[in-house]
Design goal:
It is a single chain. 22% of the residues lie in helices and 32% in strands. The chain is an alpha+beta fold. It has a domain at 58-202: Immunoglobulin-like (Sandwich). The chain has a seven-stranded antiparallel β-sheet. The chain has a four-stranded antiparallel β-sheet with strand order 7-6-10-11, covered by helices on one side. The longest helix is centred in the N-terminal third of the chain and has 25 residues, at 2-26.
C-alpha cells in the first residue's frame, strides 16, 4: 500500500510538472486567466450516504412527552417499535440512551430495556437504576461496541408498575477515568405509560415471526 501511494504521488507530480512546462512554453502573452468566480459544471455535489427511508433505518413515529416511539423500517412496512429517551447530565450533555421493549407474557421479565453508556464507563461498577425512592438495582454491562457499552436488562411487573406511576428513573454510571466519582442521569417518566402502551399495541399487530 505504501509503495502504491508513492507511485501515485510520483505519477501525479510528474504529470503536474509536465503540464506546467507545457503551459509555460505554449501560452500566448495575451491569454486571459479564467474567471475564478465563474460557476463550474464539473463539480461533484455528492449524494446521501444512505437512503433515510431504507430498510433497517430508524425513525420517530410519535412523541409521548419525554419519550419517543422509535421504529425500524422493514420491507413489509409493519415496523417493530421501542420506547426511547436520550439521557443528559446536569449540564445538558448527552451521555446515554435507553430503549424499552415489550416481552411476551409469562416471563419473569415483563419488559426489557437496552441502555447504552459511553465507552469510558467503568464496567465493573455496572449500571445502577432506581425508580423514584425504590431500592435501586445494579445491572451488568453485556458488551461494548463503537456506539458505547451496552446493558440489557429486564423489568419485573412490579417495576413496570413503578415506572408507570413514577416521576423519574435515576441511572448511575461510574467513569473509568474517575472511578471515585459518579455520573447521575435522570430519565423522566412523563408520558411513559402512554408511550409503552403504544409500543405494545404496535408490536402486537405485527405478524408472528416465522418458526
Amino acid at each position: 500500500m505504501t509503495q502504491l501511494r508513492l507511485t501515485l504521488a510520483l505519477t501525479l507530480g510528474l504529470a503536474l510538472t509536465g503540464l506546467t512546462a507545457f503551459a509555460q512554453d505554449t501560452a500566448a502573452p495575451t491569454a486571459e486567466a479564467p474567471d475564478a468566480a465563474a460557476p463550474a459544471d464539473d463539480l461533484a455535489m455528492g449524494q446521501p450516504a444512505q437512503d433515510p427511508n431504507a430498510v433497517g433505518t430508524t425513525y420517530s413515529k410519535q412523541l409521548f412527552d419525554a419519550w419517543d416511539l422509535r421504529c425500524v423500517r422493514t420491507e413489509t412496512g409493519q415496523d417493530p417499535c421501542q420506547l426511547y429517551q436520550l439521557l443528559k447530565d446536569g449540564e445538558g450533555t448527552s451521555v446515554a440512551e435507553i430503549n424499552l421493549f415489550d416481552l411476551p407474557e409469562g416471563n419473569e421479565a415483563a419488559a426489557g430495556a437496552t441502555v447504552i453508556a459511553p465507552l469510558e464507563t467503568q464496567l465493573t461498577a455496572g449500571l445502577r437504576i432506581a425508580i423514584d425512592d425504590i431500592e435501586p438495582k445494579i445491572y451488568p454491562f453485556t458488551f461494548c461496541a463503537r456506539i458505547g457499552c451496552v446493558a440489557r436488562i429486564g423489568f419485573t411487573a412490579a417495576e413496570m408498575d413503578a415506572l408507570r406511576k413514577g416521576v423519574k428513573a435515576i441511572l448511575t454510571i461510574v467513569p473509568a477515568v474517575a472511578p471515585d466519582q459518579q455520573v447521575v442521569l435522570e430519565a423522566s417518566l412523563k408520558g411513559f405509560t402512554a408511550g409503552f402502551d403504544a409500543v405494545k399495541a404496535n408490536n402486537a399487530a405485527l405478524p408472528a415471526p416465522a418458526p
